[in-house]
Amino acid sequence: MADHNDFGKIAEDLAADYLQKNGYRILLRNFRFQKAEIDIIAEKDGLIIIVEVKARSTDAFLLPQEAVTRTKIKSIVSAANHYLEELNSDKEVRFDIISVLPDEQRNLTIDHIIDAFQAFDAN
């Protein structure tokens, strides 16, 4: 497996741990629908939380959350809709982004962007 894939897995594990420590219940990880993937599906306060995890080894060119493009949002929303239909759930959904970056000491830091985008941002 390539180093960037290892880093992505580490970032997703870190994000899942962070969410659990902050009262989220992890429902699923790496949910796939067609070509789309949702990194983490969690639940908190009666909401379904769809989490996109973005990691970079540096923010020199682009912050991790800036890599969540309109096309990516569209694919996440499509997968989320499919997941909710499978569950036959009418719970409210929130879309978050967790970005993971190393700090100056090379420790990984988390930035949790709550309600990062809306489903209508996909249009």
TrEMBL record:
InterPro entries: Restrct_endonuc-II-like (IPR011335), tRNA_endonuc-like_dom_sf (IPR011856), UPF0102_YraN-like (IPR003509). Transmembrane segments: none annotated. SUPFAM superfamilies: Restriction endonuclease-like. Coiled coil: none annotated. It comes from the Bacteria. Pfam families: UPF0102. HAMAP family: UPF0102. Belongs to the UPF0102 family. This is UPF0102 protein FOB44_14325. It comes from Chryseobacterium gallinarum.
